[in-house]
Amino acid sequence: MRIPRRRRARLAALVGPAVLACALTLGSPADDELAHRTLDNADQLLKEGKVEQALRDFEQVYTAYPDSGLADDALFRIGSYYYPVDTVDALGTIPEASIVKARDLFQKIKTKYPGEDNAPGALLKLGWIALDPSNPQRSLDEAYAAFSGVVNIYPASPQVDRALFGAGYADYLAARYDKSIGSFARVAEEFPHGPAADDAHYQMGLAWMNQGAWIRALEEFQTVRNQYPTSHLASRCLDRTTQIYTLKVRSGVSGKPPFAHDPSYAPALPAEAARGDAALAVDGANALHLLDSRTGALYRLDHEGKLLSTGAPMPGGVSLTLDPAGVEILAAGSKVRSGAESISPSRQEGGTARPLTRIVAAVRIGLKDLALLDEDRNEILLYTGDAAKLKLLYRDATGRARLAGLAVGAGGRLYTIDRRSRRVLEISAEGVSKEVPVPAGADQELQEPVAVAADDIGDLFVLDKRAAAVIVMTVDGKIVQKIQSQPATAAEFSSPTALAIGPRAEIYVHDARRKTVLRFW
Fold first, then answer.
1. How far is C-alpha 36 from the geometric centre of its chain's CA atoms?
2. Is the pTM of this model over 0.90?
3. What is the largest CA-CA distance in the chain?
4. Helices (H), 113-176
5. Radius of gyration for the chain, computed over Cα atoms and rounded to the nearest angstrom
6. pLDDT tens, residue by residue, 35-53
7. C-alpha distance from residue 205 to each of 97, 198, 201, 219, 484 (Å)
């Protein structure tokens, strides 16, 4: 019979460790001492950065002393080395090979040592692994089962709050928003000082936001700012409250247009930058990324417009987007660069792979896939990891479309412009397309649409070059505001080529003639 270590400790205090060891046949005191020494030595080696030696010692503990009561400790330490993830933000950062190793180790704790101290922690880790986008066997249902197992099997475990959060997050990803709110609310109410409390309020805000309950969402985001001001989520909550108030609340409350030119914004672009066409994107830290299409140079500016850094040039680059983690995705004809990874997609024709040569846009869909706009055939294609096996998402049935721009909005839906017919198109992740109705009063403004941007709360932003205007509208065709260039003023954009939307709903417009970027918010 195997007894958990804590219970053994209590029994040892009553009958003595030697008597207990003999009675339970859990290994000799000498074995226990050797296991302790080996584990301590491995811990020290790991602190010293001697990883290979440490891992060998940990492995020796659970192979040579499987009944010492420390086997689960050794297994958990190795598993946590390979998979240190315990927060949402860390998902997707661990290689697949490490995930596979860690999963086997945590699974061994679950099945062989279910009564030991590390069992709930191992089950929690298995939940995160099942959620991880780098896991080829990713399963939201499996993740939910693992997290629920911690709550139901180990209700006194210190991991219960994080397990409740994980279960809520699995429901959130599955768009079961009401159910996810229930789990997040339990974390916030029962564990207000726990490590997952701020995350729970933030995710509750996102869940309410996805249901269009803007005031409820604002309340949760403000709670994070008030109760957890030092949280890493406080700045995100400020962005969210600003975004929602600007686009969903302010115009209804004050009756004033939500956007106005920001005269204080004067980006410090180098003299050689932005003389021609450009591409823009804004990351979660409110930094503007600008790709100069003429030279392929890449610049990054802070929220005040000061130059932060430059990136590796992308000769021939015509498109720049950012994924949720802030990784730059650039398209340059035959290549797409995502962070350090370079992709050369091709399509199969008659058993022959023919490289794409006119990729003019690339955006991240979900956590791993890329949507590509091929200007050569005016098609939108999906890249899922194999550059030679692309899935067709959209092709105009008439063959007359001239697509421009690609943006991803709420629910992973894609938006693009047909410049020939001056239409805005929506394409689902399954490849179902429809035309987005242009709001009454704005339809005549779509004279020469050149760019489209989208946010994740149901808004579209269309840049019309000839009309020198930005149309702000909802995805169901309701006008929010028409931002018109104001000639002979600081708010003039006479030759607009690109736009981007910041996390606080800031609108950035690049003007090639003025060689600058304007901001409206």
1. 41
2. no
3. 93
4. 119-131, 140-153, 160-173
5. 27
6. 999 999 999 999 999 999 9
7. 34, 11, 6, 8, 33
